[in-house]
Write a structure and sequence with these properties.
The complex is a heterodimer. Chain A is an all-beta fold. Chain A is built from no helices and eleven strands. Classes of the chains: A mainly beta, B mainly beta.
Chain lengths: 112, 119
């Protein structure tokens, strides 16, 4: 059974810091891995999607890496801003029928 | 980009009543739609997967008679919470995929969610 774990559960940093969010999964047989952002009481915004054959993806200040063999992914946020404050969710596409398995998320607070 | 809407965004109902939540794909045909449930500070849990024109596939532990899912068209799926109780209070999120549910990187587009509160 696929399980996804995210560490840390919560993080508070001053503006401008570079930070790393971690995601691990138990079954390396995945099709892809996605990082999402969720603002309080809102739906999900897809940030980055890494196919199983890829090592990393970049979008602006965000960089996500994938080490499928070790079951790990990291999301790197450069020069954090207060607008980055949100919950970041990691999800792996595993099994049939597009089944996404989510981690519990990392709640990020960036203070001025 | 692909847009998915949900209606209503918030609903409050009395215990014992039924509530219907709609999920629409606005600019693409969604052959597969997914319903998730999220408790505060917890992850999204997949409740069921539905393909247009066929019965939904429910995840283990999800009562299909309580959470009725209908995917009658390629742009609309509905989730009806029957005889709602306070423990059904949660955030319900749908997603839609244009793929055929093969499991190969068909992108899911998420709706904004519906907050259900059962008094």
């Amino acid at each position: 059974k696929q399980e996804v774990t995210q560490i840390p559960a919560a993080l508070s940093v001053p503006e401008g810091e570079n930070l790393v969010l971690n995601c691990s999964f138990t079954d390396s047989a995945i099709y892809n891995l996605q990082w999402f952002r969720q603002d309080p009481g809102k739906g999900l915004t897809s940030l980055l999607l890494i196919q199983s054959s890829q090592r990393e993806q970049t979008s602006g200040r965000l960089n996500a890496s994938l080490d499928k063999s070790s079951g790990r992914s990291t999301l790197y946020i450069a020069a954090s801003q207060p607008g980055d404050s949100a919950t970041y969710l990691c999800a792996v596409l595993s099994g049939g029928y597009n089944k996404l398995i989510f981690g519990a998320g990392t709640r990020l607070a960036v203070h001025p | 980009g692909a847009v998915v809407s949900q209606h209503p965004s918030r609903v409050i109902c009395k215990s014992g009543t039924s509530v219907k939540i709609e999920c629409r794909s606005l600019d693409f045909q969604a052959t597969t739609m997914f319903w998730y449930r999220q408790f505060p500070k917890q992850s999204l849990m997949l409740m069921a997967t539905s393909n247009e024109g066929s019965k939904a596939t429910y995840e283990q532990g999800v009562e299909k008679d309580k959470f009725l899912i209908n995917h009658a068209s390629l742009t609309l799926s509905t989730l009806t919470v029957t005889s709602a109780h306070p423990e059904d209070s949660s955030f319900y999120i749908c997603s839609a995929s244009a793929g055929g549910g093969t499991g190969f990187s068909d992108t899911q587009y998420f709706g904004p969610g519906t907050r259900l509160t059962v008094l």
